Amino acid sequence: MSDHQVDYPIATMCRLLGVSPSGYYAWAKRQPSRRARTDAALVAQIRTAHAASRGTYGVPRVHAELAAEGIRVGRKRVARLMSQAGLAGVSRRKFVTTTVKGDGRQAPDLVERNFTAEAPDRLWVADITYVPSWAGFLYLAVVLDAFSRRVVGWAMATTLATQLVLDAFNMALLTRRPWGVIHHSDQGSQYTSIAFGHRCREAGVRPSMGSVGDAYDNAMCESFFATLECELLARHRFKTPAEARTAIFQFIEGFYNPRRRHSGIGYLSPIDCERRHQAMIVVADDDQPAAVLAAVKDASRRLRQSPAAILDRHCARPPHPDAGAAPQGTELKNSWKQEGKMLSHQVS
Q1: For 80, 193, 276, 285, which has the most beta carbons within 10 A of its beta carbon?
Q2: CB–CB of 73/82 below 8 Å?
Q3: Model's pTM, two decimal places?
């Protein structure tokens, strides 16, 4: 009625719409309700959270962002306000298979599609993807920690050489310094190369590989590449590989690792997830006697120094049935059990 009051009298429009003129004027002079004012403030906060995510967050992550700031609001209300404001998260494109299954495996599958880890540096997943630009492709190799989804190693190059995965692998080793971690990848020629296998043996890393042409065997790393494509590559066009390199660096180190929330880890960022885990370890250590902790650390150090500690049920060689002596590593295993029993008595 306000839009057409220049063309038609208010009284005429009220009579045709069945509304009293006094009611219309009372409505026009009425102040916004408390609910409307609260919605307006929430929309402003939602816009801020959505813009901070580079326009990638949908309702679940925006709701988690508001909860982290101490704003208690229902998820459906966030969905309604985002819909009214025209805000939405980005979505992935349809999955396309580009490889063919084959036989043979250079390393056993130690993961078997179970991408869960109880602590950092227990399981790493790795893969390679390509980034298109007007001047050619840029290839990206990453290493992710399965516990926190953090990119612990990455490297970029314009060629698909073995040095690409070695650079990403060496970055992860330098920043994390693990021992006995499982490194899971596909059966690409870079990961099955002699140089990469030799580097894994030097670092005490157990290589693991899925089957050929099956993306589900490396689903966690494929999920990261889908996120990268959805939230960065599909929204930008790069003129040169150097421009793509800068954008990917800013995405990984400036947004993904320190800030992007993941539903699989309670809507925390990878760095926040590791910080919370470390804080829980410190609290648990404070509750234990110092002598018991020293004994546990000393026994753990002796176990890590043994070559048998890096073997598992897939890689260990079974003993000969006619052999009379105990297989290698049995004394270590029994001594470890005895030390565990002694420690449990001390704690109790």
Answers
A1: 193
A2: no
A3: 0.61
